[in-house]
Amino acid sequence: AGGSLQPLGRLQRVQCVVPYADAGKVCSAKADCSGQCLATSDVAPGTAARGVCQRDVSQNFGCRQRIDGGVAMGTICVD
């Protein structure tokens, strides 16, 4: 409920995209979120950081930097 069908990624495969209930919540680890805990700006990997819970699965594509255990991970880009 509340989702939409969207073409995602390089293959533009249609997926049901449902917003996570905790989207935008401040986090410091994946365990704090339904999805990933993502940095809101570039942070040096290994640096202490906080982020926000991911909006939905569409944020699995493109470039993003995860936060886990209160530490910034390296940036990853996915098509």
Q: If you had to describe this structure to a student in words, what would you say it looks like?
A:
This protein is mainly β. It is built from no helices and seven strands. β6 and β7 form a beta hairpin. The termini are far apart. The model has no long low-confidence stretch (mean pLDDT 95).
Strand content is: 35-45%
The biggest beta sheet reads: 3 strands, antiparallel
- Radius of gyration over C-alpha positions, nearest whole angstrom: 13 Å
The helicity comes to: under 10%
Alpha plus pi helix count: 0
- How far from one another are the termini? 26 Å
Secondary-structure-derived class: mainly beta
Mean pLDDT: 95
User: Which sequence of strands runs across the widest sheet?
Assistant: 3-5-4
Number of strands: 7
Backbone shape: flat
Low-confidence stretches: none
Oligomer: single chain
What is the domain tally? 1
Order of helices and strands: EEEEEEE
